[in-house]
User: Which sequence fits this backbone?
């Protein structure tokens, strides 16, 4: 295809896990100075392929070829020494250490007698952070940073070595638009230095914006490579899922019913203040704003995880106090939380048990858990959300990122709540399933559920919401109906002043 | 299933192309890592059987199980605590307390009242720990380490430092729990088996058990699922103290007299058994069945060492070695390698 010699090649890679053929004879190459997208549905094998390249998994068969030399990659350390830098889908930072320590972990600069050269360390780190234009410094403790900023630390790591290839596995899943711009600048910069970039993402806009070529995997098999400049959304989707995607909104002009949830003057310290809104049955209300605008905190307050400092909450017209998540669940509220690994899932538990966890007390046969009912629930949502796993016994931690997210969504949908709050519901989910989840949200509304969708993705809020509440810095700036909202006035409403605050 | 085996066959035929040395190396490491404990145990068994032919004699086996019963009963409760992501280092001195209390009360208010009184007092201690760790969210290591010494002090204060003996050792029926047989099986074994199956079912089959796993596996996710984490942790400690009280009853009934330090050091042996069974100290993984296996492995190893003529006190050292081995193999099993540069 290209005359240039690839920086690295993967050939005929085969990798199986018990019951899963994750990669089947996959070949892939990166040319110096190109951004090569790796695309595919959730569970297609993208992360696995990159873990093979990064020395985390041993392939059952196949070769990694760097500079025309076959290499047996036995550890991430070795991969790094070969110039391969891996920025993971799931964060892997030491929360108790500072930013500088995390970035240079294992290779701290030394003075004589093995003493760490802190001055040099902090200076080096700060110069990298400057390149990334972030609002924290070398001495900040990583645990204090927002997820987005932690992501930036991971990216900073990549800039410390003489990289031959940098792998970004869904780097933008939790970044704000401003941070994305910075990330893309970094990528362009790396590219101009002849570094090969492998970029995994489910977001088409990004793919078209920054990549040069696109390789597609489906069910662990290589499906082909396209030149970004010569292809279309449809062609990629076709390769990825084998069919065209219907993105039209379910024109469900259902009845909007009574007010299910009403919030008056709700405040919680400095997190948010004087929040007023209501959600009716049959209505989807979108909350749009920057990360740190206070949307998640409102959701957590409604779910009994935070105590409001002022204001009232009414359910079906009656004032209530929500004491705990258990209380919220009993009152018919469900929350799909923002952080699937930390808040959504017990990673060591199997798929079925995770899915039924909030309702396990209600699924009883005598004193025992009614396991057949549980399996039925699992099967139903596996089918409905197209969850890719060999069976309910699979440990959730072994699922691909997107499939884990689907388990969290299924967990709360299966509660049949009257008020459903979803916080970044499609983070890391592929295009096909994303539209499936959007349809599901619309469908739930049409069945009389009151739904709140918190999202940092404008197309998502625009697509699913009947009304959109724009928030900035803990306050509601404006409420739009779906007729009057445009991208421009929405952006204006959420930016207040243009700032790039470190959350 | 057939798909799976097919895949495996396919996998093998492709694998043959790899350099043989590296391939077999990797495989052996993997097997060792995953089944390490059972393999090590099998080697022990074979070794002991060769060294001493009495080792696998029925009466020796029965003896091992019987002498493991007290430790086993305690390990059942500690399994719950460990699964919920906490530790319990106080069970040894708590067991001394139960034993002393029930022996003392036996002569004062009679066995019928002494037994429930002792259970109530022991479970109050469990509730106190549960409150501190569950509701106040204090570190379980610190709390139970403190309790280890505090309860020891409590026992000594209670007994005035003297040994406790039942006056009429011949005339009391109290010895049934520790000394008699039922249908040819020693009662301590029956009690251990009964408790193990009840708690095993509680853990594996009921909503409560599911919650214990969830709280230990990811406490925050459990909270987000509406589970009252504090209450679950609290009940685990109460349950553990119930098991300790049962162990104290067995101990008192077997000996009908006791020193203040009868349970000293048991907390580590119990923990060794639980880890040996494969429960993770991080919480969220392990089962009652595995703990029972762990208890038996520990029992057989200790018995075997005695039979080959090792001094009794050498057991303390051996127990430590076993703990280290078990923890190492546990981690190795998770990463599928005996050694790995990354965590
Ligand atoms: N450690 C593991 N054990 C068992 N199965 C695994 C393991 N890791 C991955 N898999 C399986 O391999 C397949 C590919 O997973 P992978 O994480 O590579 O998908 P992905 O393309 O990155 O998906 P996503 O877009 O959701 O991140 C999935 O079916 C997954 O369940
Ligand atoms: Mg992935």
Assistant:
């Amino acid at each position: 295809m290209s005359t240039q010699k690839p920086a690295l090649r993967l050939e005929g890679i085969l990798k199986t896990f018990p019951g899963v053929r994750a990669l089947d004879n996959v070949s892939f190459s990166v040319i110096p100075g190109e951004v090569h997208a790796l695309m595919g549905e959730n569970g297609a094998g993208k992360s696995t392929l990159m873990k093979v390249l990064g020395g985390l998994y041993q392939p059952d068969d196949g070769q990694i070829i760097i500079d025309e030399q076959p290499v047996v990659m036995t550890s991430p350390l070795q991969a790094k020494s070969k110039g391969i830098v891996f920025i993971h889908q799931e964060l892997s930072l030491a929360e108790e250490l500072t930013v500088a320590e995390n970035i240079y972990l294992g290779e701290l600069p030394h003075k004589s007698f093995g003493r760490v050269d802190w001055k040099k360390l902090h200076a080096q780190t700060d110069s990298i952070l400057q390149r990334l234009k972030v609002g924290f410094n070398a001495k900040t403790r990583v645990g204090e940073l927002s997820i987005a900023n932690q992501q930036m630390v991971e990216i900073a790591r990549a800039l410390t070595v003489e990289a031959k290839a940098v792998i970004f596995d869904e780097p933008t899943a939790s970044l704000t638009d401003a941070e994305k711009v910075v990330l893309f600048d970094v990528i362009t910069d790396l590219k101009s230095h002849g570094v090969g970039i492998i970029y995994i993402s489910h977001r088409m806009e990004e793919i078209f914006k920054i990549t040069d070529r696109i390789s597609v995997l489906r069910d662990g098999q290589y499906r082909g490579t396209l030149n970004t400049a010569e292809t279309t959304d449809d062609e990629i989707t076709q390769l990825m899922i084998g069919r065209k995607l219907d993105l039209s909104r379910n024109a469900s002009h259902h009845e909007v019913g009574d007010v299910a949830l009403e919030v008056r003057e709700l405040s919680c310290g400095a997190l948010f203040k004087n929040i007023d809104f209501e959600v009716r049955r049959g209505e989807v209300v979108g909350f749009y704003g920057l990360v740190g605008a206070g949307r998640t905190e409102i959701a957590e307050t409604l779910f009994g995880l935070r105590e409001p400092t002022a204001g009232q909450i009414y359910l079906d017209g009656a004032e209530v106090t929500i004491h705990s998540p258990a209380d919220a669940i009993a009152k018919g509220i469900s929350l799909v939380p923002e952080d699937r690994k930390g808040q959504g899932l017990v990673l060591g538990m199997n798929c079925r048990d995770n899915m039924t966890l909030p309702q396990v007390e209600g699924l009883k046969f005598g004193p025992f858990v009614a396991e057949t009912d549980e399996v039925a629930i699992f099967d139903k949502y596996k089918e409905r959300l197209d969850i890719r796993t060999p069976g309910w016994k699979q440990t959730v931690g072994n699922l691909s990122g997107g499939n884990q997210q689907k388990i969290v969504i299924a967990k709360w949908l299966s509660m049949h709540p009257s008020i459903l709050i979803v916080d970044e519901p499609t983070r890391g989910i592929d295009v096909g399933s994303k539209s499936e989840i959007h349809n599901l949200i619309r469908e739930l509304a049409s069945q009389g559920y009151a739904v709140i969708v918190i999202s940092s993705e404008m197309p998502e809020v625009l697509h699913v919401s009947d009304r959109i509440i724009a928030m900035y810095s803990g306050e509601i700036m404006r409420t739009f109906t779906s007729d009057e909202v445009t991208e421009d006035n929405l952006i204006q409403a959420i930016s207040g002043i243009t700032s790039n605050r470190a959350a | 299933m057939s798909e799976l085996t097919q895949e495996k066959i396919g996998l093998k035929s492709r694998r043959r192309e790899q350099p043989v040395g590296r391939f077999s190396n990797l495989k052996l490491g993997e097997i060792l890592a995953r089944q390490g404990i059972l393999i090590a145990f099998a080697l022990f068994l074979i070794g002991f059987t060769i060294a001493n032919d009495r080792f696998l004699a029925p009466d020796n086996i029965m003896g091992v199980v019987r002498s493991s019963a007290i430790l086993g009963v305690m390990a059942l409760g500690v399994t719950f605590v460990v699964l919920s992501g906490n530790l319990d280092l106080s069970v040894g001195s708590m067991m001394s307390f139960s034993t002393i209390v029930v022996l003392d009360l036996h002569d004062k208010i009679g066995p019928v009242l002494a037994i429930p009184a002792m259970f109530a007092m022991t479970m109050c201690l469990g509730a106190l720990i549960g409150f501190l760790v569950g509701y106040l969210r204090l570190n379980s290591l610190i709390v139970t380490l403190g309790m280890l010494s505090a309860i020891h002090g409590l026992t000594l204060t209670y007994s005035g430092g003297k040994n406790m003996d039942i006056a009429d050792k011949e005339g009391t029926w109290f010895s049934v729990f520790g000394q008699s047989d039922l249908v040819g099986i020693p009662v301590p074994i029956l009690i251990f088996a009964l408790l193990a199956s009840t708690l095993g079912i509680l853990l594996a089959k009921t909503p409560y058990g599911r919650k214990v796993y969830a709280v230990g596996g990811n406490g925050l996710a459990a909270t987000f699922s509406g589970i009252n984490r504090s209450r679950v942790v609290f009940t685990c400690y109460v349950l553990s103290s119930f098991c300790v009280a049962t162990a104290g009853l067995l101990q008192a009934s077997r000996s009908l007299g006791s020193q203040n330090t009868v349970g000293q050091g048991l907390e580590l042996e119990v923990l060794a058994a639980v880890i040996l069974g494969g429960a993770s100290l991080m919480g969220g993984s392990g089962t009652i069945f595995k703990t029972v296996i762990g208890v038996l492995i520990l029992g057989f190893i200790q018995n075997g060492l005695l039979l080959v003529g090792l001094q009794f006190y050498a057991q303390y050292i051996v127990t430590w070695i076993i703990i280290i081995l078990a923890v190492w193999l546990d981690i190795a099993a998770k990463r599928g390698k005996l050694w790995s540069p990354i965590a």
User: Anything to note?
Assistant: The pocket of adenosine-5'-triphosphate (ligand 1) is lined by residues A 17, 20, 22, 40, 42-48, 89, 388-389, 398-403, 430 (CB under 6 Å). Chain B has 14 helices and four strands. Residues 74-168+178-333 of chain B form one domain.
